Amino acid sequence: MQNNNIWSHRWTFILAAVGSAVGLGNLWKFPYITGEYGGGAFVLVYLITIFLIGVPVFMAEAMLGRKSRKSPVDGVTKLARENGASPLWGSVGIMGAFTGVLILSFYSVIAGWAIHYFVRFASGALVGIDADAAGAELGALFASAGSLTIYHTIFMLATMLIIGLGVHKGLERGVNVLLPLLFVMLFVVAIYAAMNGDFAAAASFLFTFDLSKLSLEGWLAALGHAFFTLSLGMGSIFVYGSYMSSESSLAKTAVTVALLDTAVALVAGLAIFSLIFGNGLEASQGPGLLFVSLPLAFAEMPGSAFFGAFFMLLVLFAALSSSISILEPIVAFFVSRGRSRVLTTLVCGAGVWLVGMLTVLSFNHWAGFTPLYDWTLFDIFDKLTSKVTLPLGGVMLSLFAAWVLTKDALVAQIPNATVRQIWVLLARFVAPLGVTFVMLTALNVPQLWALVAAIAFVGAVSVLQLIASGRRRDSQV
Ligand code: PHE
Q1: Which of 69, 243, 303, 366 lies deepest, with the highest CB count within 10 Å?
Q2: Which of 40, 87, 54, 107 is nearest to 316 (CA)?
Q3: Which atom of ligand 1 is nearest to the CA of 228?
Q4: Within 10 A of 184 (CB to CB), how many other CB atoms are there?
Q5: Rounded Cα distance, 289 and 271, in Å
Q6: To test ligand 1's pocket by mutation, which of 26, 34, 231, 327 has the most ligand atoms within 8 angstroms of CB?
Q7: Which of 175, 236, 240, 260 maximizes ligand 1 atoms within 8 Å of its Cβ, making it the mutation to test the pocket?
Q8: pLDDT by residue (tens digit) across 421-442?
């Protein structure tokens, strides 16, 4: 391909988007929050959100990227200008950049745990480990700010290396190699787990839908996780979309990514809970679920060092193909302003690394520092992004695409009339109302309320400006 900024092959966008979507969210976070919120009902809300809200928001984000061919901040601002809307809409991109810094900062630390476990499995140190020793292993890792820092640094450097190399050499080669490998590895581990664990118990835990068991907070967690797992609301899909060819179908792409992402989460969940229940372990043990239970579950099984290391490698590959998509929107912003890609990557990476140190310290020296409720800095970053800024960012992008773009633009982006009408309905009404409803019912936390009110105010001002600017736009779709 001539154009340096378009993916070399049409399917590379799908691969890259799946690489971004499938990550620690599927392998580490989905199982542990499903365990915490009680299983089936949580999974049901998550699945509904993915397909009713996630898919249309995904289409909106990719569409805006593809139409503007710019990074999120500039792209939204440019489209707003062209359509006579307020340039304040660009603030969605700025919120996305901050969200990206926060997510990558803790994402890298957690991925670092996988480096530790990879090394420990491979060296045979975890063979025959018992429950106490497995807990102590994670406890010792958490207590060592030094080790956490080293692993966090290694992971950030790997992410920066790929981003520094740029779209063709770095991103494409990265996803082309990492993704197929990831699927093969997950398949092997899942078969292994189903044969050796309690598959029936895992299936009934994940698929017994009893909505009365789900707390309001669980609803919001499931909704927020749908955004997190599809990489929505902060610009990753936007920036990948800006490299997407004009011919590929948005709807097919979005549905493919959502299906693959969901399949990976469910297969990972089945594998992990088969091992957990097969070994009589607790489902609701928090962020440590993957890292305490798997070594324990593997311990009594033949070939544990190999399978354990294999699985951790899988986690790492998945994390890397996601972390690059978190850094890229931020780097793309500066590169489009003529800055050097390598230098920008170094500066942004160093900044994210520094913020990541707050998460490192949240697990040891600053574990008692809980500025809000009993939340450490890590908890705050995690909750603020998944439960607040990602859903808000996603909804604003969806509103922007569906209300501000002209009918002609939408026809060019989604040529099929039926698909377009369904999308307009979902993107204009279902996604925004669904997210607002769940947020308002679930957030009985005063500080978060204040934040939501502030952001809603900015949103309302933008909408008023948009209406007041009296642009010519055909709203009939
Ligand atoms: N979707 C990724 C995962 O599930 C995380 C991510 C969030 C990536 C937001 C990009 C943007 O691990």
Answers
A1: 243
A2: 107
A3: 7
A4: 11
A5: 13
A6: 231
A7: 236
A8: 999 999 999 999 999 888 877 7
